[in-house]
Automatic annotation (TrEMBL):
Organism expressing this protein natively: Enemella dayhoffiae
Pathway(s) the chain acts in: Carbohydrate acid metabolism
Name of protein: 2-dehydro-3-deoxyphosphogluconate aldolase
Molecular function via GO: lyase activity
Quaternary context: Homotrimer.
InterPro entries in alphabetical order: Aldlse_KDPG_KHG, Aldolase_TIM
SUPFAM superfamilies listed in its UniProt record: Aldolase
Origin organism lineage: Bacteria, Bacillati, Actinomycetota, Actinomycetes, Propionibacteriales
Keyword match Lyase: yes
Length: 198
């Protein structure tokens, strides 16, 4: 099983493609891959989002790219993700049952946190990669503050991230920044490419 250390190694930017139809999801996935963004996440908060995930998975297989499923909040969703062959799952919050089911099925899981208590609980559950959400509201100061008591944690900043503020969060100690609509903004693409090559 590939773990999150391997998946996120040298990957400062991840693409999140939420609420997009399959064609648009594949198109933006290809934009991300061409920029050098290897990691793509397709949230499946509702069943009608699953076809978009399936379409990106099919495109990624041709490219040899890992694709994750986002907004995975139930054990049934974890099971579906394992069946579809996703590389990792992501959640907006921390759920011990989802973490345990992900581990049982061998699907690396990235749970969401927003407080020191949640970080501490996640570590106790064996998670060292955590999604900080919503990152723009938490602020970049959150990360060095959390780095003091929790030096082994790797944070992925998600929520309100784009090419304009990503560098500030990376400089604050975030290991990866997740962007969405920035991939459709031609003006932001050169900045994203520059961050990937940093």
């Amino acid at each position: 099983m590939t773990n999150l250390d391997e998946l996120f190694k040298d990957q400062p930017i991840m693409a999140i493609l939420r609420n997009m139809d399959p064609d648009r999801s594949v198109r933006l996935s290809r934009t991300a891959w061409q920029l050098g963004i290897s990691l793509v996440e397709v949230p499946i908060q509702t069943p009608d989002a699953v076809p978009s995930l399936e379409a990106v998975l099919a495109a990624a297989q041709e490219e040899g790219r890992p694709v994750g499923a986002g907004t995975v909040t139930t054990m049934d969703q974890v099971g579906l993700c394992e069946e579809l062959g996703v590389a990792f799952t992501v959640a907006p919050g921390l759920d011990a049952d989802v973490v345990a089911e992900s581990e049982r099925l061998g699907v690396p899981h990235l749970p969401g946190v927003a407080t020191a208590s949640e970080v501490q609980q996640a570590i106790r559950l064996g998670c060292t990669w955590l999604k900080a959400f919503p990152a723009s509201l938490l602020g970049k100061e959150f990360f060095p503050a959390m780095g003091g008591p929790f030096p082994r944690v790797n944070f992925v900043a998600t929520g309100g991230m784009n090419a304009h503020n990503a560098k500030e969060f990376l400089d604050a100690g975030v290991r990866c920044v997740a962007v969405g609509s920035a991939l459709e903004d031609e003006a932001q693409l050169p900045q994203l490419a520059q961050l990937i090559g940093r």
